Amino acid sequence: MSTLKHSQDEKFFLLNWLKGSLIGNLVGLLSPWRSSSYLLGYSDIITAIFVCLVIISSPFTSNTLVGIILLAGGGFWVLLTVSDIDKNQITPIHLCIFAYWLISVAATAFSPLKMAALSGLVKFTLYLLLFALASRVFAKTKMRALIMGTYLLVSLIVSAYGVRQQFIGVKPLATWTDPTSPLADTTRVYSFLGNPNLLAGYLIPAVAFSVVALIVWKTKPQKILAGFALVINVACVYFTGSRGGWLALIGTGIVFLLGFKFWWNEYLSPFWRKWLIPTVITSFLLLVGVAMIFVEPLRIRIFSLFSWRGDSSNNFRINVWISALQMLQDYPLIGIGPGNEVFNQIYPLYMQTKFTALSAYSIFLEIALETGLIGLFSFLAVIVTTFKRGMVLIKKMKPSNDLQAIWILGAIASLAGLATQGLFDTVWYRPQINTLWWLCVAMVAAVYSLKSETDNHVS
């Protein structure tokens, strides 16, 4: 009852805010025209096509083309918004993201390199427009099926090519492995993305949604496809040799374990209700331990996680983090402005000799640098609000056994995995991953905005 009352209070607040705000008055400004528009009669399928085009293009084409598609999709979202009949599309997640964007605007205004920061703000705005566009259709069963089916098929192509690279061998495009390490000649696959860490991050949501599809999809061929995709995606993440990607898999798995335990808890015996999670975790640790004994490359990579400066990759990151923290001390509140162009021009003033970097190698540190501690707290609010809403929705859907909740769980697991990798890397900022991050957030926001109004069960 308290959860339902809290949800109703939030809805009442949002409706009142919409009625009294300038932004709220823009929503539906051209609504009389919408009923007679032939184009907007197919708005859902057009929206889904825009999202699918982003998904299809991001692993294979230039970032410029992806940006053009995002811009076109953003323009279509503006058209939908000003002609909208329903004003119940804005959620607390939308408001937190809007606040985060406003802070980014302020960081741009106060940036020491305003034009470079403006370029970063434009890119960031395009990602948020994708979120706003996708959040309109993800609660529609057919549209979500089209979008997620497209992503799983595209990711299967990407991961299959990565697995092929593992068996035929491929030369690195950069120094990804310490040349003095016993693993200097080890193959690290990168598929079409050109970077093993980027590939691992791209495939984390693919792993999560393969698990979801395995549960939700009904026919035997669909389940076989989902199971095959799961195996190939996990294998490809392993072959990247990305320690951050491996940690992301663990983070994703932990969220699934907790979510499945909650969802099917009443079907478990009292013994398994108490011991399921400890048993699974212990079994996983034993499996990893045995694998480390027999697989030397795995053993060396895992031990390198704890070698501090003994590993060249660790040492490099530590030096970059130290320099980035010195930058943060000089720009603590509002940061240097969004975008890698600003970072690339200011970082050389702080870097230690021979440790050049294109980013802070931690998305949370990078966000703090770009938008200050205010921006970091705002971004964390987006994460907390998204996770909170996801958990509330899963609880509300459980009594009716609405499998839409499993999609939400997959989105939350994906976010947890990407955030885990993001602790030690900034591939999150690349379009291939950043678009997936905001699509996962949009899935939670979309279901939240529509579930209370409809009984939209997943078939």
TrEMBL record:
- Which membrane topology term applies here? Multi-pass membrane protein
UniProt entry keywords in alphabetical sequence? Membrane, Transmembrane, Transmembrane helix
TM annotation in the entry = 12-31, 38-56, 92-110, 116-133, 145-163, 199-217, 224-240, 246-264, 276-295, 358-384, 405-424, 436-451
The cellular location(s) given in this protein's UniProt record come to: Membrane
Grouped into one coarse class, the protein's main location is membrane
Kindly list any coiled-coil regions of this protein. none
Q: Which residues form the O-antigen ligase-related domain?
A: 228-380
GO CC terms: membrane
Q: Which NCBIfam families match?
A: 2A73
Q: What is the name of this protein?
A: Inorganic carbon transporter
